Amino acid sequence: MIKSINDVITLNNGVKIPQHGFGVYLIKEEEEGYNSINKALEVGYRSFDTAQLYENEKLLGKILSESGVKRSDLFITTKVADFNQGYDGTLRSVEQSLKDLKLDQIDLLLIHWPSKKHFFETWNALEKLYDEKLVRAIGVSNYEIHHLEELSSKSAIKPVINQVECHTYLTQEPLKDYLKDQSIAFEAWSPLGRGAILNDNVINKIANKYDKSIAQIVIRWHLQKGNIVIPKSSTPSRIEENANVYDFNLADDEIKVIDSLNKNQRNGNAPDDVYLKI
């Protein structure tokens, strides 16, 4: 039973990650950052997901360091950008990320997109950072099954997590099944489909039953499916709404109805398109 925003999932190296985190994609302005991140802390979020590409690591680090929340209560994820991939580039960029985030250790470091050119070099750099305890856990983002199989052929450490686009129109069930078999956690970015699902009539009927918004129903669906989920918003009322999903439970048949909405519809890039370019 999922009880609260404090619930965690244990990764394959024993590190615990909150199942429900807060994404900071597109939050760059200082006032917006303070308003949204402090609101997220106020309503209970302790896991924050950023990336070098987002250009807000320094802002997030400043706000969290000033928040009064103990470092041990926070879980910080960042990602190596495409333009920083490669062995040396990864090591240099993560050194800068640590400074910008005001951290001695990053909780979770991901490769943002698979790169054919730098495929093993970047992962080897993550393994070094893990061995040196500069990061607590390492994983990937936007990897398909064949990328993960390729990675396993020449890696010493298995990824703890794969963060991919997932929402009710892109449920990613074959990938989820593979990750489960490999003991790799599944994390959903764009869990609300960048707004594409927020007018869905099927979900709206379920939302009306529980007196919840469509967004709340979908976040609850993710949680009950076992997905780690990182909704983002810069609107304080929506940040609070997205956290308020622990006072109801979707029935099994309702989860199946939502599952059936899958269209394999991406709103972001296809991983293989990026893989061949970087």
From TrEMBL:
It comes from the Bacteria. Pfam families: Aldo_ket_red. It comes from Clostridium chromiireducens. Belongs to the aldo/keto reductase family. GO terms for molecular function: oxidoreductase activity, acting on the CH-OH group of donors, NAD or NADP as acceptor. This is Aldo/keto reductase. Transmembrane segments: none annotated. The active site is at residue 54. InterPro entries: AKR (IPR020471), Aldo/ket_reductase_CS (IPR018170), NAD(P)_OxRdtase_dom_sf (IPR036812), NADP_OxRdtase_dom (IPR023210). Substrate binds at residue 112. The record marks 79 as: Lowers pKa of active site Tyr. Keywords: NADP, Oxidoreductase. Residues 29-262 form the NADP-dependent oxidoreductase domain.
